[in-house]
């Protein structure tokens, strides 16, 4: 299927590795011009070069940290100078530190709220007029399955990512008439470095061997395995496609059937 996004301009946040990089590659494979961003200039440069060498799409990059107060201004300048506009925005952020509600201090809550919520919303608001004027826009916000089934020991993530649900749904209703869609993409256990880190933390906290933690995690997934980054990225690419113009205000789960709710 031709997704109809060849030549479209896409900004993918937190795309130096993991899910963000996977999405950027999937969009570039469809012929999009992607702008990578993250904290590691070396990784960004190498990933952009690999995408460009593949010859299907085009990639640029900018070093930027969501934790920095100037993040939004940096990204707006990069969108203008490197992309010349915007058609697709993928709001992806790194996950916060694991921990219980009791460990969720005011300082941690404030700092991660700024990087995971405030700057995502501020950047989206700043880019929206460009999408509305041209009559086309795709906004995909990556969150977590924890927004509908809170994940133990991820109190910060459950709280902050959950706050984006109401925002994304409200946004979708406000911009639909402009040809702009807004959807959320919710990963379950997709095999990335983040999953490995969380499982290691769970093993340490419980005192159980990491092998036991991994085996238990697989038993909770009907598919019987971890998801692949490429599978998750393909779902993101479709939500960014021309064909997905009538899909908005939704939450799409990519979790191998792990969710117990309907």
UniProtKB/TrEMBL annotation:
Protein family (similarity comment): Belongs to the short-chain dehydrogenases/reductases (SDR) family.
Superkingdom field: Bacteria
Protein name (database record): SDR family oxidoreductase
């Amino acid at each position: 299927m031709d997704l109809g996004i060849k030549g479209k301009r896409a900004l993918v946040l937190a795309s130096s590795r993991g899910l963000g990089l996977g999405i950027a590659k999937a969009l570039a494979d469809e012929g999009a011009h992607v702008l990578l961003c993250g904290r590691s200039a070396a990784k960004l440069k190498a990933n952009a070069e690999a995408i460009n060498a593949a010859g299907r799409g085009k990639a640029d990059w900018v070093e930027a940290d969501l934790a920095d107060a100037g993040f939004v201004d940096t990204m707006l300048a990069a969108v203008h100078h490197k992309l010349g506009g915007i058609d697709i925005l993928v709001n992806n952020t790194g996950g916060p530190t694991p921990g219980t509600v009791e460990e969720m201090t005011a300082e941690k809550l404030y700092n991660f709220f700024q990087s995971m919520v405030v700057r995502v919303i501020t950047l989206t608001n700043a880019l929206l007029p460009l999408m509305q004027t041209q009559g086309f826009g795709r906004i995909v916000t990556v969150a977590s399955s924890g927004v509908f089934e809170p994940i133990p020991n991820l109190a910060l993530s459950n709280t902050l990512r959950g706050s984006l649900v109401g925002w994304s749904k409200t946004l979708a209703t406000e911009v639909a008439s402009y040809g702009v869609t807004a959807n959320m993409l919710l990963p379950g256990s997709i095999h990335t470095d983040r999953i490995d880190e969380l499982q290691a933390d769970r093993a340490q906290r419980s005192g159980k061997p990491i092998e036991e933690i991994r085996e238990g995690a697989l038993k909770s997934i009907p598919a019987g395995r971890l998801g692949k980054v490429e599978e998750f990225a393909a779902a993101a690419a479709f939500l960014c496609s021309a064909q997905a113009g009538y899909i908005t205000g939704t939450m799409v789960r990519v979790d191998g059937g792990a969710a117990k709710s309907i």
